[in-house]
Amino acid sequence: MANLYQQKITTMNNVMNHVDNGRVPILSPAQTWAIAYAGRTAQECKEDAHKECEIYGKYLEDMYFDGTPIFGISRPLNATNGLGFDPYFISADGVSLQCASNLEIINDDEIERFLKNPYDFFRQVALPRRYPALQQDTPQTEQLLVNSIKAMMEFTNREKIKIKYLKKHGGQTPMVCGSLPVFSPLEQYVMYRGFTKGLGDMRRRPEQVLEACEKLLPIVSAQKGKHKPFPWLYNPIVVATYLNMKQFEKFFWPFYKRMCDEYINDGGKILAHLEGSWGPKVEFFNEFPANTVTVLLEEDNYEEVAKKIGDKVAVGYPFPIHLLRNGTVEEVRTEAKRIIDKIGTKGTFFTAEKCLISASDARPENLAALCEVSRDYRP
């Protein structure tokens, strides 16, 4: 059907806007699992955008999805070639990605310098430290920088190639989010300091953390006139699950709310991936205008979250990954129908409680069964 791509966009926008589709749509949970499904490698995706589209498009051709948050590898792996440090690298299985163990760029005695001017700190300290090849002033260094910039531009341009591909192939399945994620000020600060130090700073130097979040806010906030209601902004949140309520209210939410407000006021909408367990913190999402945010859950109880925020915020049902991994096709179908009968079809959609990374994360026939129920079952 020629307009299937647009129909799927309408379906997902209906979810965001609490318009009943008469069924529960499904958002793909597959990340590098898609590479394993196609029997290919991440290296092939890294080398060529068109090959990446074919590889990631395979499972979308074989199964029905209403949308996918990402399509392809979501990190610019080629941008750091030759710079002396790769923050992300391909795992031994040839499919999944790993993150380097040490990503911190701000030492204890450098916080004041960072706070004085984050931009200067990044340029003069962080980049040369992170990428040792940049410490040398040679023609070769200049060429490495040129190559890195070209690789970033190529990564950005891949989104256009992917969208063009998906309009005709890959089951005409739209990316519901742009290619690069958006992180909160506190999330960024913890990344720069390292997880243990960043969280500890809220006790050791709370005023500096607050100042850092204030300084980082304009860096992570929206560019005026750059956003539309679709595709949405992808916003993974890891740090919030490790905060107690006082820390959440003081260090995370005020800056996160201001960041999201800027995107929303500029016309954007947000897909927030709530990693871990949020508990009562999830109620803060009621502060956003209705139909501007949707959330993906991991460990939180869907019914409790939907009861607290579901009138304003669309909520993705986290289908149990143990069933996708170890269950039978019939068990998956039975559970999916049971869930749909219980939660209804308005302001909600299916995904998995964890992203699918490696080949063992889900049996293809089980994921296909979930897709079929999502597409065909009417309660």
Sheet-strand content, in percent, reads: 5-15%
Separation of the first and last Cα atoms: 25 Å
- The tally of beta strands, per DSSP, is 7
- Helices and strands, in order, run as HHHHEEHHHHHHEHEEHEHHEH
Number of helices: 15
Quote the average pLDDT: 95
Return Rg in Å. 21 Å
Instruction: Tell me the quaternary state.
Output: single chain
| Biggest sheet overview | 5 strands, parallel
Q: How do the strands of the widest beta sheet line up side by side?
A: 3-4-5-6-7
Q: What would you call the shape?
A: globular
Q: Helical residue percent?
A: 40-55%
Spans of at least 5 consecutive residues with low confidence: none
SS-derived structural category: alpha/beta
Could you characterize what this model shows?
The protein is of the alpha/beta class and 379 residues long. It is 48% helix and 8% strand. The chain has 15 helices and 7 strands. The protein has helices spanning 4-16, 33-37, 42-47, 49-62, 111-116, 118-130, 139-166, 185-193, 195-204, 206-220, 245-265, 302-309, 321-326, 329-343, 364-376, and strands at residues 88-90, 97-99, 233-237, 270-274, 293-297, 314-319, 348-352. A 5-stranded parallel beta sheet has the order 3-4-5-6-7. Strand 3 (233-237), helix 11 (245-265) and strand 4 form a beta-alpha-beta unit. Helix 8 packs across helix 10 (206-220).
